[in-house]
Amino acid sequence: METKEAFDLLNKQLPKGVFLNVKNDNKVNTMVIGWATVGRVWGKEIMTVMVRFSRNTYDLIKNADSFTVSVPEYDTIKKEIAFMGTKSGRDFDKYKETGLTLCDAKSVESPIINEAKVHYECKIVYKQSMDPTGIIDYENIEKRFYEGNNDYHMIFYGEILNVYDK
């Protein structure tokens, strides 16, 4: 798959949800994300993802060395995305409930979702806690996404080691 084609699918599917997969200490979790960026930082192809401190995935990714992002074909597996995006791995076996299956990634420890079309494998190279004092657009960001909950994000920068369709 061409990199541009993979990037186009990611951008098209992100508002509907893609899968962020993390493995650490033999524990695996998948959450649905609707925000991510791909670009060039430090001379490397980088994907950034944001995970709230309150999420089960944060408990795994904070000490992990990798993550993967599995992108379904556009506008497919909607029920699975809805379940994975609204239920916690603390309370449910998400894979049993949805029928989605994990398989090994090619170059990182974190797995991929077998039923997705495109996979990004990322090695974590940097992480930074979101500083709420840096939010300038209060009405559209702070008020909309954080007001009253104080549940900010950790931003993870992953060097993209592989992008492929399955």
UniProtKB/TrEMBL annotation:
UniProt domain Flavin reductase like: residue ranges = 24-164
| Gene3D superfamilies membership | Electron Transport, Fmn-binding Protein, Chain A
Family, similarity comment: Belongs to the flavoredoxin family.
Cited InterPro entries:
Flavin_Rdtase-like_dom, Flavoredoxin, Split_barrel_FMN-bd
- The name of this protein is Flavin reductase like domain-containing protein
Source organism (scientific name): Anaerofustis stercorihominis DSM 17244
Please give the Gene Ontology molecular function terms for this protein: FMN binding; oxidoreductase activity, acting on the CH-NH group of donors, NAD or NADP as acceptor
SUPFAM superfamilies xref list: FMN-binding split barrel (SSF50475)
Q: Name one Pfam family in it.
A: Flavin_Reduct
